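Reviewers of the previous submission asked for a worked example of the structure-prediction workflow described in the proposal, so we include one complete record here. The input consisted solely of the amino acid sequence. No template or homolog information was supplied to the procedure at any stage.
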Amino acid sequence: MSTPSPQRARSAAAKQQRERAILDAARSLGTERSVREVTLTDIAAAVGMHKSAMLRYFETREQIFLALTAEGWEDWSAALRARLGELTDGDPGTVAAVLAQSLVVRPFFCDLLAQAPLNLERNVSLQSVYEFKTVVLGEVAAVATELCRTLAITERSAIDVIATATSMAGALLQMAAPGTRLRTLYETHPELAHAVVDVEPQLARILSALLEGMRSTAT
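From that input alone, the workflow returned the following structure tokens.
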């Protein structure tokens, strides 16, 4: 006997519930595999829907993951600002370590950070990109305010730090290739040792050097 298809959500609340189920399924699949390996068909199967029915809630697969990227920015921003608020001094090395750790503990977010400009933003409507960028810019401004307070740097410098931290976290995670055959290859061949990227300490070193340079320039 075939499984009946889920009924179309009629009310606004039901629609929001269905959208949340789709986002949660995409998050789970993306965390388990990687964002680029998850198809719309995979997500539809996880929520028990036909692929065509998914288009009533999201215009493309990329819009689903772009929405999750926006949520990732909100989550990361709130957690980072709380951590920075606990610091008693603006030591660049300490702030760099906090920044690096806050990103590395969110590998799914880092994966999304790498995919967003390359793929996700390029297969959605301009309105979806506008809504996404509005969320991101708001969180960047909030984090920048806290970095300015903590480090006594300019807003422009703080924004540069955030751009460097998030872009490098996404890139380094892709290079590290955790949980893949590539990573196994790197780790089992000593001549490829340079390819074994340890993301958190490398990111912390890069950010520490950047912050030290900014402080030196400001002084």
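Residues 78 and 143 are 8 Å apart (CA to CA). We consider this example representative of the routine output the project will generate in years two and three.
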